[in-house]
Design brief:
13-stranded mixed beta sheet, Rossmann fold, 21 strands, alpha/beta, disordered C terminus, 27 helices, five-stranded parallel beta sheet
């Protein structure tokens, strides 16, 4: 887990070395050395955490490295801030020529023992390098095992879980609640009259009941009578191909002389032993495609209806299994099925009186249809007196985790299997409230602003969306709403959210203030880098009392405090501010221009009337979202914000200079005058455009928009003007979403030939929606 933090800091150090080369000229060698040392540490941290995390010395070792990594980021961020505060209001580009002279001035100020200055960064980085060396020396002093070798033995948690999977795979539930439709579908696939061998892949969240469902199929009389040979093997995360082959062979009762055979010999033995037989093999809990790829050659194509069943949490593994694969996504239990399972596990206790029935219903609903959670909850409550149910209801997730190591370990395995690039992205989801509908556009832009997404030749938002889909495919996020083929909103199951919160607490990732439930939902350290507020009149004073100078993000879901943004300017290292739930007029203070690290500023629905000129000092700003019912007055020279990627607001009635914003991906909602005076060919990355057209004398045409080759979403809002032909939009081959409000004489006869990728079309006439169609 700490590998996620260290890799994140290593990437930021690399970005600094590239982007701030002139500033770091005097200490470049020290920064490069620090980066290299952290890269070496990163090679060993993952193995150390997995293999020896029960060792207190190892835990302390990785914690020390985590703290040093955080301190590296702090030193560089404070260095850049101090440079701007000490030296100038000029742009960075104008300083490069005088950098040597400036450093001489800094050295002179150091000699006079005045306030801290830029020259001290060399000393601070030197101290960080020294601390890293001390951590390494201390590990050798206390006899920690060499991290570059395979460490002996599994951790206790993984070992117990591995044994648990082996001993329970063949256990048969007497009565499986729910999944009748899934059982019928899958049984038909197993028994259908198709002589070809094919794979049935079942995927879904850990604890959803994949193994239980397959166990039911495996033991059915119809399956037993169809297949001459049946075998079951659990793969799990830590597997060995030779061990898997031996276990499969022993399941078929072929045990002669196999213990000394090599992997290739075992494959040949199994292949020959199955020739001429119809067989069913269950390969349970597959984590990566190479596991099945390594086994596939051992199963002959007998043309007698043989089948292989694979269960996995990963959609990609399920789809990749074989050229002939039936992929089945296992659903969550319905409300009635969840209640039936709960009642069974509590022996009907929930129906004894109305009070228990209500408490039971509420707790079962919190389980979100996850069978493992319901089973653990039922088992927990079945041993408790009626008066204790209310207490469990108040601490349901804590009690579920403490009541079953299986549920905690099963979910933690999904997290541990993530590449380090995805770990912080997943943990970040823990700051959202329970059952919150997460806007994916917002999540992706926050990931980018937080520095979780690497900067390379690919557009970062595309990388972030790919990360989102991978978390969905790994069953860690649930898709909620889609539009034009893309995920628009998503959710996190409460158990997985709780997992994210617990792990984020260990990394000191964010602090959640909720006056209703208490403020200890996550890290309570004063140095926590992200402050999240759910509710409470005391939240404002809470932030001031903590006064954390290292705060990087402030996210508010419900707070009524007009001068909250003025308070934000006290935290000079802020990278992200989201006040989209502050539902009244906000004033953007001039001081906001001092937040030079700020990349993400969202004040949606906050009725901003005026944006000060000082905002043009935010040279790192990527997202500015001030969409509301008002029309905020913007500085005309918005083009100075060269890093701007998403600009959203109601900019009706004003002209904005956006010509040279080549990174811009979102621009809405702009006046038609801005469109007419902008060389759109320069906006090579623009994907989403919203236009407001007020010229009642003219027909609106799409000729200029046709220059936007990468446009995906277009919204045009007219008063009562007619639209011209849509034909020019044929040059926008990637256009998927089109919304038009105004009078249009007629649509092209073959819409799909003009816009072949269009998936969502919305037409409004006189502000009334008359047609809404999906292609």
């Amino acid at each position: 887990m700490v590998d996620a933090v260290v890799s994140y800091v290593v990437r930021r150090l690399g970005d600094y070395l590239i982007q701030e080369a002139a500033f770091l000229r005097g200490v470049r060698r020290e920064v490069e050395s620090l980066k290299k040392d952290l890269e070496w540490m990163l090679c060993f941290i993952k193995d150390a955490e997995d293999k020896q995390f029960d060792n207190g010395l190892i835990r302390q070792w990785v914690t020390d490295i985590q703290e040093i990594a955080y301190d590296c980021e702090d030193v560089l961020d404070k260095f850049m801030l101090q440079f701007h505060e000490e030296g100038t209001a000029r742009r960075r580009q104008g300083l490069f020529a005088s950098i040597k002279k400036y450093y001489s001035w800094i050295v002179a100020r150091t000699a006079s023992h005045k306030e801290p200055n830029l020259y001290s960064i060399g000393k601070e980085i030197e101290a960080l390098n020294k601390r890293l060396k001390e951590v390494f020396d201390r590990s050798r002093m206390y006899g920690l095992k060499a991290m570059d070798n395979k460490l002996e033995g599994d951790s206790k948690a993984l070992g117990k879980l591995k044994q648990l999977r082996k001993t329970t795979s063949f256990a048969l539930e007497k009565h499986v609640v729910g999944f009748e439709d899934d059982t019928s579908t899958l049984l038909a696939k197993l028994l259908e009259d198709d002589s070809r061998r094919f794979v049935i892949s079942i995927w879904g969240t850990g604890g959803l009941g994949k193994t239980t469902l397959v166990r039911k199929l495996y033991h059915s009389s119809q399956v037993k009578s169809k297949f001459q040979r049946c075998a079951w093997v659990s793969v799990s995360r830590d597997y060995n191909i030779e061990d898997l082959l031996r276990r499969i062979i022993k399941s078929f009762n072929f045990t002669d002389m196999i213990d000394k055979l090599s992997e290739e010999e075992l494959k040949r033995f199994l292949h020959n032993s199955l020739q001429g037989y119809s067989y069913l093999v269950v390969i349970d809990d597959v984590w990566e495609t190479i596991a099945w790829e390594s086994l596939r050659i051992a199963f002959p194509e007998n043309n007698n209806g043989s089948r292989v069943i694979i269960t996995t949490r990963n959609k990609f593994v399920a789809e990749f299994s074989d050229e002939r694969t039936y992929v089945h996504k296992l659903r969550f239990l319905r409300e009635d099925e969840s209640w039936e399972l709960f009642c069974e596990k509590t022996s009907g206790k929930a129906n004894e009186d109305e009070g228990l029935w209500k408490l039971g219903k509420e707790m079962v609903q919190k389980c979100g249809g996850l069978p493992l959670a319901i089973v653990v909850l039922g088992g927990l409550l079945s041993t408790k007196r009626s008066q204790e149910w209310r207490f469990v209801r108040g601490h349901i997730w804590r009690d579920l985790s403490s009541g079953s190591t299986e549920i905690e370990n099963l979910l933690a395995l999904s997290f541990n299997d993530l590449p380090y690039q995805l770990k912080l992205c997943f943990l970040y989801l823990g700051h959202y409230p329970e059952d919150h509908e997460i806007q994916t556009w917002q999540l992706i832009r926050q990931w980018v602003a937080e520095g979780f997404i690497p900067q390379n030749e690919e557009i970062m938002e595309d990388v972030a969306y790919r990360y989102l889909n991978e978390l969905i495919n790994r069953s860690l996020i649930q898709t909620d709403k889609t539009r034009a083929g893309r995920v628009v909103t998503c959710r996190v199951h409460d158990l997985l959210r709780d997992l994210a919160m617990q792990m984020a607490k260990q990394l000191n990732l964010f602090h959640i203030y909720d006056e209703i439930k208490g403020s200890t939902l996550s890290s309570s350290k004063s140095s926590c880098r992200r402050q999240v507020i759910y509710s409470g009149a005391g939240a404002y004073s809470q932030i001031l009392q903590r006064h954390n100078p290292l705060l990087r993000s402030l996210i508010i879901f419900n707070l009524r405090q007009r001068d909250i943004l003025t308070m934000c300017t006290r935290f000079k290292l802020l990278r992200a501010i989201n006040l989209s739930s502050v539902l009244f007029e906000l004033i953007i203070p001039e001081e906001v221009g001092k937040l030079i690290h700020l990349k993400y500023l969202v004040l949606r629905y906050s009725e901003v009337k005026y944006v000060p000129e000082s905002i043009l000092n935010l040279v790192s700003l990527q997202t500015l979202d001030i969409i509301s019912g008002s029309c905020p007055q913007m500085p005309t020279e918005i083009c100075k914000l060269q890093e701007l990627r998403h600009l959203s607001g109601n900019f009706s009635g004003q002209y904005l200079r956006v010509d040279n914003l080549t990174n811009l991906q979102t621009l809405k909602y702009i006046e038609s005058e801005t469109l007419s005076r902008t060389n759109l060919e320069k906006l090579v990355n623009l994907r989403e455009l919203g236009i407001v057209y007020h010229d009642e004398e003219k027909v609106f045409n799409f000729n200029s928009i046709a220059q936007l080759k990468n446009l995906r979403s277009l919204l045009v809002h007219l008063l009562d003007n007619p639209f011209d032909s849509l034909q020019p939009l044929s040059h926008c081959q990637d256009l998927m979403y089109l919304s038009l409000c105004g009078r249009i004489e007629k649509l092209p006869g073959k819409m799909h030939t003009v816009l072949p990728n269009l998936e969502y079309l919305r037409l409004e006439f006189s502000y009334l929606v008359v047609i809404r169609c999906l292609y």
